[in-house]
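Aim 2, interim progress: modelling of the pyridoxal-5'-phosphate-bound target.
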Amino acid sequence: MDFQELKEKDKSYIAATYSRFAAEIYEGKGATLRAEDGKEYIDFGSGIGVNAFGVNDEAWKAAVKAQLDKVQHASNLYYTRPQAELAELLCRKSGAARVFFSNSGAEANECAIKAARKYSFDKYGEGRFHIVTLKNSFHGRTMATLSATGQDALHRYFMPFVEGFSYADPTFAGVKKECGEGTCAVMLELIQGESGVNALDEKEVQKIAAFCKERDILLIVDEVQTGNGRTGYLYAYQYYGIVPDIATTAKGLAGGLPLGATMFFAKTADTLTAGSHGSTFGGNPVSCAGALSVLSRIDKDLLLEVQGKAAYLRTHLARMRGVLSVSGLGLMIGLEIKKDAREAAEKCLERGLMVLTAKNKIRLLPPLTIGKGEMDAGLKILDEVLSE
Ligand SMILES: *Cc1c(COP(=O)(O)O)cnc(C)c1O
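Predicted structure of the complex, ligand included:
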């Protein structure tokens, strides 16, 4: 099957929800990917921030294979070691008290939404269910997380949406204005990824956190994209100097396997009770073994390394003629460019560089372990494409 045949098969049999780039990913090593015909790509996208340690990382593979040799799935009717060990490690590193495991970012957020409403129901009774999210946020594609997503363009076709959400301007004043007697939670992406890699202001976020605490409104931080070392901090809330009541993560957590986590801090640790939530696949032992390998290596040294690579890339990007501004934090990078972002991304791909887009920006989420040679090769292609 050549690439043309692959494309035709995909088009014939797969639901047409994706406008894919014209490249096949067949194999790779580190931040270098290859198609079946041998064409190579530098990877500045890591599968949308998922392959945190790149492709074919030896320690990760060994951990995953060792678990595959034992058992691939158990269901949550029974105990498994990787799940318990991962939960402990996540709590120790994040400051959370308990974790619920699922399979994706949307599910992690779905769980956070349910838990926030139950926390309020348990304490205040019916009617306190309203959740404030931000304009231009992205929280997922399920009915509730789509309802939570503050983008009108995504609120079509599927009416009625889940009620009880409103969308605030990304400031303290904006959030305060949307909060009322019936508000149980505020949900934030500290750096809005899908809508253009825009970081919220630290002072505004700290004011929102203090306000929420005062009113017993739960602060939910969506770290699906920002989490697990991506920003040069284990979680972005650590950079912002706040402690959420619930934090969610997924993308990079298991280094390429599906895994979502909803982390409950002190206030919400006992909110979910037997039977109140669940997932058949959630916390799959193979995914958890992969996550243990990744998370145990995201230590101070690695985070400093990420910060160093981020500074290197950002310095070079800021100097490029075709770049108007550079946004985000750490290795979560947004580029405002003079060209159309999709066209520029396609041109990069033709020359052997994979980049992402976010609205009309170029978005870079390279593997945390990307090498200097790979960074330089990618920067060179990007510079050529953007300055044409
Ligand atoms: C990707 C993303 C999600 C959705 O994650 P899925 O795994 O695709 O369900 C939710 N929130 C944020 C901030 C994301 O970046």
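The two ends are 35 Å apart (CA to CA). Residues 104-106, 109, 138-140, 189, 193-194, 222, 224-225, 250-251 surround pyridoxal-5'-phosphate (CB under 6 Å).
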